[in-house]
Design goal:
Elements (H helix, E strand, L loop, with lengths): L1 E3 L3 E7 L2 E9 L3 H14 L5 E10 L2 E7 L9 H10 L5 E8 L6 H19 L2 E3 L3 E8 L1 H13 L3 E7 L3 E8 L3 H8 L1
Amino acid sequence: MRIVIKTSEVEEIIKKSRFIGLINPCQTERDALLFLKQLHERYADASHIVYAYRIQSPDGLICRFHDAGEPSGTAGKPVFQHLEGKQLINLVVVVIRYFGGVKLGAGGLTRAYGNVAKQVIEAAEIIDYIEYVEQTLSLEYSQLQALEYQLKKLDGSIVAQDFSETVKLHIKLPRQHLSALNAFLD
């Protein structure tokens, strides 16, 4: 899976209609909805504000898309298909349309919304998504240096530490390296 780093924007005129594509990273569904609310205020005079998002939550993947008054399946779904096809998560893609007076038809709408979504995705800075896990450990002082070295090798870090009779650590590392850390600790 992949994520986007920062907001990007593209614009295209298709048969006198103005299409504005935006992509924005979101960590939660609430973030996505707040971003959409801001866009509805900013582009209050737009004919349609179509969106799609995919957000990884503790309960699984949240996927939504909305046609915003365009004929069913001609706007939100083509945008969503690009997110799904590129395995993008934790983002919202919005395509804003200002109607130019020329009807595009169902096929034209599907192509227009899909192409603008594709362009804004291509314009965005995208990186691989790394899922992190956190764990609490308790160990002897003599083990601390070796653990710190192992964490560094596994792209992990110490989030918090407490020194008392033993060393209590709260660590964070990529999920894919958790088994290697557990093997080291055993």
